[in-house]
Design goal:
Layout: E1 4-8, E2 11-15, E3 21-29, H1 30-43, H2 47-60, H3 63-70, E4 79-87, H4 88-97, H5 104-117
Helix pairs in contact: 1-5, 2-5
Length: about 120
Amino acid sequence: MEIKEFIEGNKKTIILDEDLHRIITFRIDRETNKRLEELSAKLNVTKTKLILNMIMKFLAEDEQRRILILQYPVTINSNSIIGVRVTESLLSMFIEKVPTEYPYTVALRKIVTFYTNDIRENIL
């Protein structure tokens, strides 16, 4: 974490991060979580890095493809809870691209499930 201090007159300002972060949690199926862990080990990256790359890949898709991904059927037989640290700017861009009928946590579940199950996709 980067810490910066600014002194202006008698006022001291401390900035802990240049870009604000938020921890978001969402549920995915345990099988999807297992595949995500296997993919993480295979590519030697963290699950968070994979999920962030999936979000960025989703944002780069054209609108028709994004709608197709959000319509991907997802069932949760036994769930796992995932937590991801995301910058506010990336989260804002993501929420902007997700249609209002999908809460962003549901959209994340669908995106992660889609890209994890579609092994033809190049995640990184």
